Amino acid sequence: MSVPLELFPDTTRVTLANTLAVGGCDLVDLAARFGTPLYVYDAATVLARAGAYREALRASYPGRATVCYAGKAYLAPWLLSLLAPEGLGLDVVSAGELLVAGRAGFPRERIYFHGNNKGEDELNTAIEAGIGRIVVDNLDEIALLGRVASRGARQQVLLRLGPGVEVRTHAHLTTGAPDTKFGLDIQSGAAEVGVRAILAQPSLELRGFHAHIGSQITDIKPYRESIERVFAFAAAMREKTGFTMTEMSPGGGYPVRYSPTDPKVDPLAMVREVAAAIVAAAKKHAFDLPEITIEPGRSIIASAGVAVYRVGSVKKASRIYVAVDGGMADNIRPTAYDARYTAALASRVEDGGQTDVAIAGKYCETGDILIQKVTLPLPRVGDLIAVPVSGAYQLAMASNYNMAARPAVVVVADADATLVHARETFEDLVARA
């Protein structure tokens, strides 16, 4: 198997020394400087993805539109400092994420607060920060937010709808089906109750609706179906209550390729199709074009990140197990979602014959296998394994399982590497034990 460079960050190159480099920085040198496991982010790839989404949306939607980055995929001040000047919005789902955004100076009017069980303290924090929108999830939250918001300025909100759309993706990534913990279902009448409840709260200003149907969706059809159901519902609410939708979000969840066997996708084409569907639905249901937000999610950050591990042992059983110094503590996705990755031998990119191996983590679980099968030059103890498309959800979901220290993070740009998150120490672990 040749090295799948198309899955690595845009700046990835094979050096004359037969090693991998990202952003002009040799991964072998970075591993020597910062240790392993190591997460390397390429700033140029982040900016390229964000800019491509922004321009695709600008070119295809004649109304006001914003691309929102989903902080839950991975959030750090250095990242927000890159995204803010690009005009992106930010989706947060906790007071902690909101705090990081505040510390980074991210424009508060471009922050959207999501979540199905926001605490009173979190809502207080959001209102005191003066964020742009709170995306209301349920009837209990409407009552709570109405009370909290009455202490200050009127709060603008979107109501999260359950459009009842089934999609083909992992069950844990589905959010718009009839049986989901998110939002108020349209078909059952719960969403209408939610609209009326918000309109009855003097401290809340309903702007419109939000509907997110899931992640890693490769088919445009469910997006079109969801958009049509949202507009049909909005038209019914206009007739029944007099409320006119002026803002809506069709969600996002556009797909990312994790391995060469994944089907090729064009997320920018999906953005254009979504924009066209909104224009058509607005015309059909006699709405002015609403202000919209889209949520590309992981596809802005995933391919910008590379996880670098060092090989500790190579064992031949029924297959060849290559054990590395990371695993499910820094990447739970293969265990939780059956996520499939690929890899390259960063220290000897092309070195003779190819062998099928399994990349095993170091943690005390049989299921701690990062990659079930990948073809590489036979690794040796001390070699470096680089796993692409590691920028989203891995660090965000990382743990101290087996009392492991979470890895260091560096950002590379123009042949320079900046340490943005130091490796945890054993003293850090003991302090929390």
Task: Summarize the structure in words.
- The chain is an alpha/beta fold and 433 residues long.
- It folds into two domains: 5-35 and 302-432, Lyase, Ornithine Decarboxylase, Chain A, domain 1 (Beta Barrel), CATH 2.40.37; 44-299, Alanine racemase (TIM Barrel), CATH 3.20.20.10.
- Helix content is 29%, strand content 24%.
- It has eleven helices and 21 strands.
- The protein has helices at 27-34, 43-60, 77-83, 95-103, 120-129, 139-149, 190-199, 221-241, 267-284, 333-337, 426-432, and strands at residues 13-14, 20-22, 25-26, 38-42, 65-70, 89-92, 111-113, 133-136, 155-162, 184-185, 204-210, 247-249, 291-294, 305-316, 320-324, 344-345, 355-360, 369-376, 384-387, 408-413, 416-421.
- Strands 4, 14, 15, 16, 17, 18, 19, 20 and 21 form a nine-stranded mixed β-sheet that branches. An eight-stranded parallel β-barrel has the order 5-6-7-8-9-11-12-13, surrounded by four helices.
- Helix 2 (43-60) runs parallel beside helix 9 (267-284), helix 6 (139-149) runs parallel beside helix 7 (190-199) and helix 8 (221-241) runs parallel beside helix 9 (267-284).
- The longest helix is centred in the middle third of the chain and has 21 residues, at 221-241.
- The chain is elongated, with a radius of gyration of 23 Å.
- Residues 168-177 have low confidence and may be disordered.
